[in-house]
Design goal:
By secondary structure, the protein is α+β, with helices and mostly antiparallel strands. It has a single domain, classed as Transferase(Phosphotransferase), domain 1 (Orthogonal Bundle), CATH 1.10.510. 36% of the residues lie in helices and 11% in strands. The protein is globular and about 55 Å long. It is an enzyme of class 2 (transferase).
Length: 267
């Protein structure tokens, strides 16, 4: 997964700095993996994964028969792939860094806070989507999906903002002051329709029992603080505090310790 994250950041860095482009629609269906030998990967997965079946009415006196279920290759298999090449595709709703073509950007569950609030936005929206996707790829769950209440008390946007506040704390006043929509959601910094929240730090969630954010079983416990720091840098609520793709490529979670501690080359 680190290699996928690294290549995504390299792609975003190229788009942002070299091309002056903001993708604005980074999501799983717009990220492709190019493999040297896809048939071998699928064959290995089939060999290692038992076939799941379900009982189907056979329409006869014999009763039921077992029918194979369709399978989706899961993200943990990515770590077993060799020579992965990541491709970012579909620039149909992309914007220029210095000229936005639309403010209706990003899927709701991957939407940066500044976009929801109607505040100015830039390349940081791609970094936010990237952070959400890394959690989704690692855990297989959307981190901040948001859901409207059944009785209409709050909207999916309200719920998503509440989830963010529970993990990252109150929204910075400076960000709220820059937005065109905060009065739709907040009153004196507090959510209008969801007043009761259950705060929890990102680190405690990764070490706890919450399924969506609990650390993956194959992640060493010692790696959790570094991974959490990585996520907190790309998921900073205020885009002014969010790191760029270039900066994140130097983060300890992606850079092996041997490389970080190696002495500089002598000229």
């Amino acid at each position: 997964m680190k290699e996928v994250a690294r290549q995504l950041l390299q792609g975003l860095d190229y788009l942002h700095r070299e091309c002056g482009i903001i993708h604005t629609d980074l999501k799983p269906s717009n990220i492709l993996l190019e493999l040297d030998d896809s048939k071998a990967v699928v064959s290995r997965y089939i060999e290692q994964t038992p076939v799941r079946t379900t009982e189907t009415d056979a329409g006869s006196e014999e009763g039921v028969i077992a029918t194979p279920l369709s399978e989706v290759i899961t993200t943990p298999l990515i770590s077993e792939m060799d020579n992965i090449r990541v491709r970012i595709i579909d620039f149909g709703v992309a914007s220029w860094v210095d000229k936005h073509l639309s403010d209706r950007i990003q899927p709701p569950h991957l939407r940066a806070p500044e976009v929801t609030l109607g505040a100015p936005w830039g390349t940081g929206v791609d970094i936010w989507s990237f952070g959400c996707l890394i959690i989704e790829f690692v855990k297989g769950h959307l981190p901040f999906p948001g859901a409207a209440s059944r009785d209409g008390t709050w909207t999916a946007e309200d719920d998503r903002l509440a989830q963010l506040i529970e993990v990252f704390g109150p929204f910075p006043r400076a960000l709220l002051e820059r937005g065109a929509r905060p009065k739709e959601f907040f009153d004196e910094g507090n959510l209008l329709r969801i007043p009761k929240l259950s705060p929890a730090s990102f680190l405690s969630l990764m070490d706890g029992e919450t399924e969506v954010l609990r650390r993956p079983k194959d992640m060493p416990k010692a790696e959790v603080p570094v991974f959490v720091d990585f996520l907190e840098n790309v998921l900073a609520i205020d885009p002014d505090d969010r790191k760029s793709a270039a900066e994140m490529l130097k983060h300890p979670w992606l850079v092996p310790e041997a490389v970080r501690t190696a002495p500089p080359e002598r000229s």
